[in-house]
Amino acid sequence: MENQAKFQIVSCSGASNTGLFADAVARQLNNDNEASMICLAKVAIGDQGLINKVKNQENKIVVLDGCALNCAEKILGREGITEIIHVKTTEFNIVKGKTPFSEEKANEIANHIEEIIK
What we know:
Elements: E1 7-11, H1 17-31, E2 35-37, H2 40-44, H3 48-56, E3 60-65, H4 71-78, E4 85-88, H5 103-117
Parallel strand pairs: 1-2, 1-3, 3-4
Helix pairs in contact: 1-5
């Protein structure tokens, strides 16, 4: 029997290091079958098929933003997707434009998300 993801995740994939962390964590959780990744770009262009699918899912939605601009949260909010768990990479002592990417820090964020989903 195929493992089903425990939650949905959508991430910032912005140009800064904070976006890199968000994207890497979302992909890691997706690859580990913990989460099902939502395409933020498709939501941003108004893909109603995806938007309706996200709205009709029973799984929790984790929104992982890279910085205080909260782009992913805002994009989902414009589509009425507001029942979310919001996490920012900057909550983990990652400084935008300064903190180099590390697997250790990405794992810390992923572990935090897994804990809050339990």
